[in-house]
Amino acid sequence: MKARWVTASARLTLVASALWLAAGCTSIAADAVNSTTGAVSDAINQRDIKAHAVRSIKTLTINRVAVMPLIDAAPGGGEPLAPGAAETISAELYSQVALAGGWEPTPAQDVDDAMQKMPPTTLGNLDENALRLGHDVSADGVVYGTVERYKERVGADYAAASPASVAFSLKFVDLKSKQVVWTAKFAKSQAALSQNLFDLANFVQRSGRWVRAHEIAQEGVKEAVADLHGDLNLSRSVKRFETGSYGELKSGQQRYSTGPQGIY
Q1: What is the largest CA-CA distance in the chain?
Q2: Are residues 21 and 70 in the same domain?
């Protein structure tokens, strides 16, 4: 009787041990799956823009924003930028700032007029010119920066010999404190899906097409403006934006809307 009880007890012990080990393995497996899923999610949702904002950015009052044209800044000895690179990214930057809402973009014509009265912008006086521009057009902040790389695609949509590649840097200076409170860097070269499986969403959106440099630049500018917009403590109750082509925006023919009725 005692031997039978010992045998039954031993069986119960073995069963309990097996259940404990199974639970432990299940927990480990679940942790591994969760970890892998998180890593994949991070990779898929990873943005190409790398931005940084100072803590005090949330305390700023920003109503009027000026966009200063970007300048060429190809590394010494590197490949020269494609013609019109800085102008293309500047135009996209102005358009995205105008469409973002929550702030009032300084008309491009006002910026052009002010820039004509200033010395040509270089890497040496970039920050100084941004402050001067903001002062001259009565802006609360200025977005400005440089274009380090702008390489056009070589080849056709579905048979590119060399992919497009773009890199630029942006800054946002607060006119009241005269401090740069936000910076961003964007760098991207299109890669084949076989080289980057996490780029599947963009691959599908582009229908497997090799894109042009301005399309990559547009993607980067959108990410940058969205990041800056989210960091600033803007008034969400007033949706103010400009509509129209860049030519209309630049010529001052834009219209403003602040709600269903709009202000034109």
Answers
A1: 107
A2: no
**Domain range enclosing 138:** 48-257
Indicate the pairing of strand 64-67 with strand 141-151: parallel
CA end-to-end span of the chain: 98
Q: How many domains does the chain have?
A: 2
Are 106 and 64 contacting, i.e. CB atoms less than 8 angstroms apart? yes
pTM over 0.90, yes/no: no
Structure tokens at 237: 């109750």
Structure tokens at 77: 């000895």
pLDDT (tens digit, 9 = 90+) per residue, 165-209? Answer: 899 999 999 999 999 999 999 999 875 434 444 444 454 454 456
Identify whether 78 is part of a domain. yes
What is the C-alpha to C-alpha distance for residues 52 and 200, in angstroms, rounded to an integer?
A: 27
Distance CA 109, CA 251 (A): 6
Nearest partner of 101 among 229, 227, 253, 249, judged by Cα: 229
